[in-house]
Structure formats: structure tokens, C-alpha cells
Automatic annotation (TrEMBL):
Compartments reported by the entry: Cytoplasm
Top-rank lineage group of the source organism: Eukaryota
Organism taxonomic ancestry: Eukaryota, Metazoa, Chordata, Craniata, Vertebrata
Species, as recorded: Callorhinus ursinus
The keyword Cytoplasm appears for this protein: yes
Major subcellular site: cytoplasm
Protein name: Cytochrome c oxidase assembly protein COX19
Gene: LOC112816885
Family under the similarity heading: Belongs to the COX19 family.
Any single biological process term in GO: mitochondrial respiratory chain complex IV assembly
GO cellular component: mitochondrial intermembrane space
Span of domain CHCH: 30-64
């Protein structure tokens, strides 16, 4: 029963995640963007690189409606899609 003696020795201090914590879209404000993105994923056998435009539009919707923190699109990996530039081929 050594666990009974260790209860007071350490206390767990929870901390929030650096990224990924954001409000749910309870009112469906970005549902159409999410559905387009999910359809694209299904149509392309879940190759997310083929659905970057849909992903960008969905994240922009969430940021505009304050459902996630504002981040520069370049920081989210969409620098090549800004300003109508063509996608970079990998």
C-alpha cells in the first residue's frame, strides 16, 4: 500500500494546450466550409494535401467568427495560397 503514503508528495498541475483549444461551432456558422472540406477528403481518399483550399477556407471562417485565435495564414502553412498564388507542387 505504498500509494497511500504518496498522495501528498506530488500534486498534479494541469496546463492548457499551446494550440488546439478552441470553442466548438455550436451554431454551425462554419458548417458549410467543414462539409466541403470533409467531402473533398472523402473524394480524394483522405489525401489532405489535395484539399488545402477547403482547409484554408474553413480555418478562415473559424477565425473570422472568433471560433479560434487569429493566426497568420503563413504560420498555418497556407503561405502559397495567399493572394491567388497557385499551389506549390510537392
Amino acid at each position: 500500500m505504498s500509494t497511500a503514503m504518496n498522495f501528498g508528495s506530488k500534486s498534479f498541475q494541469p496546463r492548457p494546450p499551446e494550440k488546439g483549444s478552441f470553442p466548438l461551432d455550436h451554431f454551425g456558422e462554419c458548417k458549410s466550409f467543414k462539409e466541403k472540406f470533409m467531402k473533398c477528403l472523402r473524394d480524394n481518399k483522405f489525401e489532405n494535401a489535395l484539399c488545402r483550399k477547403e482547409s484554408k477556407a474553413y480555418l478562415e471562417c473559424r477565425m473570422e467568427r472568433q471560433l479560434m485565435a487569429q493566426e497568420p495564414l503563413e504560420k498555418l502553412g497556407f503561405g502559397d495560397l495567399i493572394g491567388g498564388k497557385p499551389e506549390a507542387k510537392t
